Amino acid sequence: MLPPRHQRRLITCVVVAATFGLVTTQSFAAQNDTRPRPWQASHQAAIGREHIRAVHAGHGISAFTVTEEDDGEDEAENSAEATAQYTEARTAPGVVAPGAYGAAWQQIQSMRRTHGHWNHVTKKKYNSDDPRYRDVNSNSSGGSGYVTGRITGIAADNHGYVYAGGANGGVFRSRRGGGRWKPIADKLPSLSTGVLALDGKKRLWYATGESNTGATSFAGTGVYVLKHPHHGTFQPGDRVGGAELESTVIHALRFAGTKVWAATSTGVWSHSTTSLSGPWKHEFAPNPEYLPGGSKADDPSAPYKNIANDIAADPKHPGKVLLAVGWRSGDSYNGLYAKHGGKWKRVNGLGALPTSSDDVGNMTFAAAADGSRLYAVDQSPAQMAADPNSGLKGVYVSKNGSPFGPWTRIADYTQLKNAGSALQGDGYQPGIQAWYNQFLQVDPADADHIYLGLEEVFESKDGGKSWIVPGPYWNFNFPCWSIDPSKQTGDCFPTTHSDQHAVAIGSRNGKSWVYVGNDGGIYRRPLHGAVDSGGHAKDWQSLNDGTIDTLQYYSVGVGRDRDHGGVSVTGGLQDNGQSILRGHDRVMGSNFGGDGGDTITDPANGCNIAAEYVYLAISVTQNCGANDGSWTTDPSKATEYSVAPPDNEKGGAGARFIAPIAADAKDTGTWIAGGRHVWVNTKGFAIRSGKEWSNAYDLGEGHVATAVASSGGTVYVGWCGPCNNQGFTRGIAVGNADGTGWHQLSLPVDGTIPNRYISGFDIDPHNARHVYVAVNGFSRRFTEGPGAGFGHVFESKNGGATWTDISANLPDVPADTVEYLPNGGLALGTDLATFYRPAGATKWQVLGHLLPTTAVMQLRLGPDHKLYAASHGRGIWSFDVRRLRRHHR
């Protein structure tokens, strides 16, 4: 029996927008055809080919297209353009000034709050290998086990304390070597994790601003220090220095002597570790004219011009440091720098370690505790552009511990491929995503024992002479794999989730562990663990026990659970598929794999689900996706069906990466899907083919939908195109689901609704001409672009002919979703909080208590009278809106 095809995204490179909001450059490869068939390794090769086409020359967006040489089954879509889309929603039409989110957060602290508390719905284990869900589009049986959202920082001590930082979820602490986690950073204005590190005084340093250039990577508010991490929690007053590192991404913190060095998106900074007050010192920026306040700060390429990746200090001379600087896709300033004669200058002639601008990209250092070894891993921009298999230039060692070498290469991607990697196909081999996936760690008791993280986890015990792969990408490739639901992954041992970001070594009760963080959360194994004959670990343990929830949802759907009572809650996730939590469940399952996007759920039957992968690659199930895997031998037993509308075939030219879909509020059998066209399905969950969609309206060449809503057949569609800073245009189209009455609303640049991204609608159930719209991005105060305008939520009582700004006292923060409540009030989800405006009122309040400071991408009412919030970093939460009715009666 062969494994199924799997929905799996590939990240490629495109564009960064350096705002406090985000740095975003994540790209994904979509699969069109999800008909039941055995999985084919050639899909990875197709992804690899498209990866190379997506690599841009310079700094602009370079979209790729599918060519005739790619077979229909394994086409990868126009995903390069999608990389910037999460950022575009917040930055277009201009560049966001630093401090925008900080100002909003400060205002929120003084706002009135409603009564009531949010309930954490997804504070449960999430089993990616749940044997109940082994249908055609599931990744169940891959071997990742229990997962949560992306973990981008880890620190551990020798007393069993472990600290894990979520991409946009804040810091969690475990006192037992992992598990039983408690959040300890929720009072900070940013929960985006760049680095977690313990210094020589056992203080915990938390650098905010996620340390990779991925599509949903938020910048931060600086560096914070917790002096007593075993017991304390981070407070805003724990920030080191002033606001110098606000609105940056922090890639590394390195301690040397009495200094801490920070590699950031605005260059290299340093601060005393003896006194934490006083400003950070700006040590080096290769192109200072592109920094905020500089003469070229408004240049579109400014975010790329001062990226620093890591710092290495000479163990014998802590004042001598080597800076690894450069944009991962290449720039003339890329290189290694050291100070000579009081000035920072390029360094060459270090032996095998690359020093040229062509070959220095994302670089990570790791030093042995005794100073005898220094290791480095390097991603090469030139190789990424030219080699279809990998962007990894190599792994290197300085055997005297000095950053100035001489350096020797100890591995390249072919050696790692041959060490037992699951990535064997042409076009997708170890290091293909080395710009996004990197960590390096030396065993503190053995300078020759190292752990390397790329897409997979690698290990060497002899200083790089030989390697094994204790954490392969997944188990589908291996002879031990089976889809048998009585086993997690056949006869294979569990592995980690793919895409590695963070690593630490710690101990508890005398036993040492290595901890790894990736797109699926945090895992551990004994530092000297057991492996099978293929070098794959026998002893990985998932630490994602449900008490740590950093899941990054795009959407949420709620329906009644007819079999068990209560409701079924589902939603699409970044790199963790689609989760499903039924009424009786103590553990969530995953019924769709890859990246989950928007979703439609039948309120009357929570097992009727339509789940988007990417670019409107919609699949439908009417049994919650429950399957024992027998479809692999009998395709007729599949119960998930691909029903993508035709715009999916055009990739980014036909639809947004996460494209909007919605059911009519009064008819769950009528669906609206927005790409370039407005697609209508009138068969509801009985649809079985993409051919069954009808084209209700063409938004126009270059235009793609950003939000859709429908009530009683009246449809509203928001669109953009171009969607980035270069000529940004937005609009709203209104018409009927039967294809009649369609027209574009008149929305001039200087009109009431700002020239910014339309992110969400909701319609008054009593009057389809009464509609609300949420607008993303920042107002003109922070957006230095044409026609940015003011306001975040608008109301029309005449079908969109005229609009009124009802933002009132709302903070200036990107708005993502709006929901009309049964009591006549409004709920608004934003990047920092959810707000409520009572019926008849004009001012907004913060809705309830306990909801963490993270982006709420979608609000949906459930049939249980609860409002559900899909957060992009801290899971799904619910709020009983009946409390509001009682309170405001």
Helix content: under 10%
Beta content comes to: 25-35%
How many helical elements? 6
Strand order of the largest sheet: 4-36-35-34-33
> What's the pLDDT, averaged over the residues?
89
Largest sheet: 5 strands, mixed
Bulk shape = globular
Radius of gyration of CA atoms, rounded to a whole number = 25 Å
Secondary structure class reads mainly beta
Q: What is the end-to-end distance?
A: 62 Å
**Count of extended strands:** 60
Contiguous runs where pLDDT drops below 50 for at least 5 residues: 1-6, 8-83
Describe it for me?
With 889 residues, this protein is mainly beta. It is built from 6 helices and 60 strands. The protein has a 5-stranded mixed sheet with strand order 4-36-35-34-33, with no helix packed on it. It has a 4-stranded antiparallel sheet with strand order 3-60-59-58. Strands 5-6-7-8 form a 4-stranded antiparallel sheet, with no helix packed on it.
In short:
The chain is mainly beta and 889 residues long. It contains 6 helices and 60 strands. The strands form 16 sheets. It has a 5-stranded mixed beta sheet, with no helix packed on it.
What key phrases describe this protein's structure?
single chain, 889 residues, mainly beta, 5-stranded mixed sheet, 6 helices, 33% strand, disordered N terminus
